[in-house]
Structure formats: structure tokens, C-alpha cells
Amino acid sequence: MRIQIVGRGRMATALEAALAGGPAGEVELLPLGGRGTDGAGSDAVLLAVPDAEIAKAARGIRPGPLVGHCSGATGLDALAPHEAFSLHPLLTVVGPGARFEGASAAVDGTTPRSLALAERLAELLGLEAFRVAGRDRAAYHAAASIASNFLVTVEGFAADLAGTAGVPRRALVPLVRAAVQNWAELGAADALTGPVARGDAATVQRQRDAVRERMPERLALFDALVSATEDLAALAATKEEP
């Protein structure tokens, strides 16, 4: 299978490095393609380009090869009229040395053949593949953004507020790791701790007063997080009832 990856960014270079180290003889990687690549000489083309550029890049591919993209939110219609597939590694990629093993990937295909290719590429990368249909892609991608991007935003808020008390960001790291590990093992309701979970309204109010005084621009975010946490605590309480 002669595959050409199109793109010059972090995902493209990481995929190239990872697939190049796969089983010999199964995948022949053509040189990374840039703007205007037509896929000549390839059996499959994988577009690792920004979402807004997928449709344009796909239109430039000559008929014949299977054409895929690495977007989590974009449907396969953006690749028409090609026989299409998608492969979205569910992890953060920051450079060519990224390790895919042990993570998951959302895949899809317009034909059994293209879906099989997406699943095989996931396997070669060490990813566990699951299929996400076109109608579910926006919800899937929103969940991924909440789990990664929004988590970073919340931790940034925590670090900035801690800084007003002279507490370094590194002091929060073990707490964050333990919370994420507990969530991974137990689920959200059973992993929840803290004053909201205990029903300690007085402590929550003191926290709110501190946020209002020191970071008033984040008060609405704090209130929204408290409200969502109260809902989660209520769910946890119903689970504990005999």
C-alpha cells in the first residue's frame, strides 16, 4: 500500500514518523505532500491539513486513490467524490516524536474497503479504533475538546488563582494527576471530592469571594463550574442511596 500523507504540520510529521517505523513491506510512504499535491502514484492519500483546507485539498487529488483526513469534526462529504475514510487519533500531538500506542482513534469510511484501511492504519499506529458516524462527529469532537482543551483552560484558571496566593503551578500537579486518575478509574460521580461534594456552602462562598476579589473576570466561569459540580454531586448522592 503506497500512502502519501499531505501536510507539513505536527500531525503530518508525527504520522509519517510513526508509520515509517511500522511493519516492513506493508506500507510504502511516499514523500510528504504539500499544497497542490495530486496523489499521483499513491494507493491512498491521508490529508493532515487544517479542517478549513480539507475540501480544497481533496479536490486537488486525481481520481483513483482512497482519500482520507485526520479531522475529528469534519464529515466524509468533504472528500467527495473520492472513496473516502477518516482517521482521527484521540490524543494531543505536539511534534514528530508523538507516541500513538495505547490511545484510541475515531474512524469511518464510505465503503468497506476504505473503512478497513482506516482501521488497519489505526492498528499499525497502535491505536484502538472505534467508528464514529458522520451525524455524531460534532458531539464526539466537542467531547474531545472538553476533555483536553477545556481541562487546560480550567487548570490555567486554577494556576493563576493559586499564583495570587504565592502558590506555584507545580504544587497543583499531583492534585490534578490524582483527580484525572480517579476519574479514569471510577467515573466522574465517584471521583468527585471537595466542598461542593460535601455540601459545604460556607466554604464555597468564601472561595467565590476570593475569585470575585482577585480574578473578577473569571467569576462567571467559577459560578458555572460550581453549578455543574452541584449537579454531579446530586447524581453521586442518588447513587449512594440504598
UniProtKB/TrEMBL annotation:
Pfam families: DUF2520, Rossmann-like. InterPro entries: 6-PGluconate_DH-like_C_sf, DUF2520, NAD(P)-bd_dom_sf, OxRdtase/DH_put_Rossmann_dom, TM1727-like_C_sf. Residues 40-82 form the Putative oxidoreductase/dehydrogenase Rossmann-like domain. Residues 106-227 form the DUF2520 domain. This is DUF2520 domain-containing protein.
